[in-house]
Amino acid sequence: MRRELRLAGFGGQGIILAGYILGKAAALYDGKEAVFSQSYGPEARGGACAAAVIISDEAIDYPVVTRPDYLVLMSQEAFTIYGPLVNEGGIVIMDRDLVETTTEGERIYRVPFTRLAEELGNRIVANMVMLGALAAATDVVGREAMEESIRTSVRERTVPLNLKAFAAGYDYLAQGEAA
Amino acid sequence: MTGNARVLTGQHFLMGDVACAEGGLAAGCDFFAGYPITPSTEIAERLSRRLPEVGGVFTQMEDEIASMAAIIGASMAGARAMTATSGPGFSLMMENIGLAVMMEAPCVVVDVQRGSPSTGLPTLAGQADVMQAKWGSHGDYEIVAYAPSSPQESFDLVIKAFNTADRYRIPVFVMADEVIGHTAERVTIPPADQIPRVQRKRPRYAPGDESFLPFRAEDEDLVPPMVHAGEGYRVNVDSLTHDEKGYPATFAEPHDRLVRRLAAKIRQNAHQIIEYEELLLDDAQVVVVAYGCTARSARRAVALARQEGIRAGLLRLITLWPFAGQKVWELSSQAAAFVVPELNLGQMITQVERFTSHPVVGVNHAGGAIMPPEPILDAIREVVM
Amino acid sequence: MAEIAVASHPIDAVLRRDRLPHIWCPGCGIGAVMACYARAILESGIPLDKHICVSGIGCSARVPGYMNLDTYHTTHGRAIPFATGLKLVNPELQVTVFSGDGDLFAIGGNHFIHAARRNIDINVFCVNNFNYGMTGGQAGPTTPMGSFTTTTPYGNVEPPFNLAALAAACGAVFVARWTALHVRQAQEAMQRAMQKKGFAFVEIVAPCPVSFGKSNDIGEGVDEMWMYRKQCVVNDDADVTKIDVTMGKEAELVVGNFLDIERPAYMGYGKEVLGEA
Fold first, then answer.
1. CB–CB of B234 and C19 under 8 A?
2. Please, are residues B143 and B101 in contact by the beta-carbon 8 Å criterion?
């Protein structure tokens, strides 16, 4: 089965790295096929920023995300641009403090990625919180695969903080749902 | 992300550009000269980090003209040398690509194609340099050009390009595109001892032996052995038309002989060079001929056509040059039509047309994004109606 | 009846005798400069097999074709980047670019300034004859103001480069200017360039009698040699920025070994940059 994911926000949030880690987790540690690509061009400087990941059990031919099954939004602008494009029945996860919306639904998760990262002492790991929430809300990539991908993708001395942030995002949704 | 080994054996998640760089390293590339240009820059960046680790040399030149000249000089000194660029830089390299042909200097040029002409679309994909690869430098000559469809194939084809370059003493192109260059997928890098390595043919004469003619092709493959700078052979290597001794011979007769040999060493060995992938061709009545990123869209289009009961198949070109004309000819006996999607206004389609009398339909876009499968599917439907 | 005047010559070992006679016109200065280069090679103490000569296109660029070395006759203007690649791969080689003023400073000008800036360890020997000889005497980047050429029929209106000043400004570690008359000095300058670690530049002013000489009332090659004899001033300490070559009938033509400094040579971005022991 082919599943398409879009991660969107603004430059500096680590969206691209998050997309890379996600694709890598699927392709190297979860026995799946995966394609990762990113937006290039003027929009990749400062303003809007988006990563696309396709994960499949079979070889992936056309490497383009058109209607994502999973959409992660980390800015109001991303919500405006990409919100309407989510596939029917798709799951949306957004930063509850950065995206203002009255949209509600079973498949909409609002997680304070950035605030949770700040509580851990560094907002730069908001992207890892986001990946944790994504892993908890979906079965697209296993938790262990994601953690291994983080370990092999970020600078060695930052591994503990990144993993802690990932866990924070994961627990937020996993426990929230249980509660 | 990088270790110290030349060959990073194992599984990696790499974008096509980085895979090109790692393919070069695995192939034994000692020398890279280049100039930053989107969307190929990641190749230079990766090699600036990696070549010093493995005892190679990276150098950033003042432009692509110099980059191409430098890799030819490096090749003549014995190095496996490469450069990487995109359209505008590829244009600047054309002059010295002719020099590499004339000097028979093996080297590898990666062109990560973007939207063109001119500055065009620096960050977005195109496939409009494929004719330039063949015809861009002045004069008659033959080259080899590969077109990767994935990061894994980018890795594999750069290795193959080095081997083909050394085998035939020619410049070899890897015609990637922005989509493949900037897309990350799993890339499996084999153990170092499993990476094929073709050695350059070397002289069978000792330095000083008067009977040695450095540009005489003694073997049937028409490839003369290669002398490296400083080995004592004291050879003249010339951009002018030259005789078998390497001396300028600027007359009609030696010119015809030299230019014919340079072309013939590729033409007569083309069957050993040409590569393609066949998908569902056994019973195909419509054959889609595609390459690079567009081949991925074509693969989807063929699958969708099959779901509709249309017997479509895909001939995916791995070598653009020499062109797989014989294969198109063979397919013509069974198929009724060809569809050729390209991110240009119709370049490789002219080659397909040369080898079939059946209808050949182009699906074209000037570039800027990968082609969606739908227009290809529409063309398939149209030709079977 | 023709008679062989000399059965052998001291520089035979460095020449491809089977390629002679050469293509240059009567009175041309390039042959004299080639002989300086040949003697410099013999005196350099570096084995002939390690000397490499690279050129671009033009009359002066034909020199490597006559040298019994590993020689590379490349494309117009591209000898320096070609030599750069070759040198970076095999730093043991003594690499010389031998070419003309048009090749090195018009079409190849960008490569020259960047090679000097990097301080790549090569020698650049430039025969400056103020015009494009091979194509029939057109104006180039060293053609003096007012000079007549086949593309400046009413006189040249572009100021020329002062090559010595350009090389020095761009970072060359050795800069000299001599003429085809100063064969001893030119040879010595070439030998010093070969010993130098870094970008070494020697300009050799030379006659092109059939084009530049004829069009500018200089006369035959020997007349231009007399002009050098009369007007040259040797001054190693000259301010390179003030020694333009005007080829005026009364003007001083300052020659000398103007610059000899030390600066780290460029080795490429290789293992040295890792800074490990």
1. no
2. yes
CA-nearest residue of chain B to C18?
A: B247
Question: For chain C, what is the mean pLDDT?
Answer: 96
How far apart (Å, rounded) are the C-alpha atoms in residues C81 and C112?
A: 9
* Residue B277 at interface with chain A, using a CB cutoff of 8 Å: no
CA distance C107 to B93: 15
Q: With an 8 Å Cβ cutoff, are B73 and C68 in contact?
A: no
Fold of the C28-264 domain: Rossmann fold (3.40.50)
Identify from C41, C50, C66, C86 which residue to disrupt to test chain B contact, counting B C-beta atoms within 10 A and taking the largest count.
Answer: C86
In a domain, B271, yes or no: no
- Is there contact between C and B if contact means ≥3 C-beta pairs under 8 Å? yes
Give me the tens of pLDDT residue by residue for chain C, a chain 277 residues long. Answer: 566 677 889 999 999 999 999 999 999 999 999 999 999 999 999 999 999 999 999 999 999 999 999 999 999 999 999 999 999 999 999 999 999 999 999 999 999 999 999 999 999 999 999 999 999 999 999 999 999 999 999 999 999 999 999 999 999 999 999 999 999 999 999 999 999 999 999 999 999 999 999 999 999 999 999 999 999 999 999 999 999 999 999 999 999 999 999 999 999 999 999 986 4
Q: Is B293 on the interface with A (CB under 8 A)?
A: yes
For B106-135, the pLDDT digits (tens) are 999 999 999 999 999 999 999 999 999 999
Determine whether domain A2-178 maps to CATH 3.40.920.10: yes
Partner A contacted by B3 (CB < 8 A): no
Phi, psi of B344, rounded to the nearest 5 degrees: -160, 180
In this structure, the answer to whether residues B189 and B302 fall within a common structural domain is: no
Which of C88, C90, C92, C161 minimizes the C-alpha distance to C128? Answer: C161
User: Could you give the CA distance from residue C165 to residue C244 in angstroms, rounded to a whole number?
Assistant: 8
Split at pLDDT 50, 70, 90, the class of B2 is very low
- The answer to whether the Cβ–Cβ distance between B240 and C73 falls below 8 Å is yes
The CATH number of the domain holding residue B334 is: 3.40.50.920
Is B62 among the domain residues?
Answer: yes
Got the DSSP string for C214-268?
HHTT--SHHHHHHHHHHHEEE-TT--GGG------SS--EEEEEEEE---PPB--
Give yes or no for A169 touching B (CB within 8 A). no
Which among B58, B72, B235 is the nearest to C269, CB-wise?
B58
Q: How far apart are CA A42 and CA A59, in angstroms?
A: 31
> Which chain B residues have a beta carbon less than 8 Å from that of A60?
185
Which tens digits make up the pLDDT trace of C119-155? 999 999 999 999 999 999 999 999 999 999 999 999 9
Domain residues of chain A, as ranges?
A: 2-178
Is A in contact with C (3 or more beta carbon pairs below 8 Å)?
Answer: no
On whether ipTM exceeds 0.95, the answer is yes
Residue B313 pairs in a beta bridge with B287
B166 in helix, strand or coil? helix
Task: Answer with the one of B194, B213, B241 that is the final residue of a domain.
Answer: B194
Q: What pLDDT shows up at residue C65?
A: 98
- Is the domain of B175 the same as that of B298? no
| Residue at which a domain ends, from B159, B194, B229 | B194
CB contact, 8 Å: B179 with chain A?
A: yes
Residue pair B281/B306 in contact by the 8 Å Cβ criterion: no
Range of the domain at B362: 277-384
- Is there a domain that residue B379 lies in? yes
Chains in touch with C (≥3 Cβ pairs < 8 A): B
Output the domain CATH number for residue B80: 3.40.50.970
**Residue of B119, B186, B299, B307 to mutate when probing chain A, most A C-beta within 10 A:** B186
Same domain, B147 and B44: yes
Q: Structural domain tally of chain B?
A: 2
How far is B340 from B346, CA to CA, in rounded Å?
Answer: 8
**CA atoms B92, B98, B101, B103: torsion sign:** negative
Any chain B CB within 8 A of the CB of A32? no
pTM of the model: 0.96
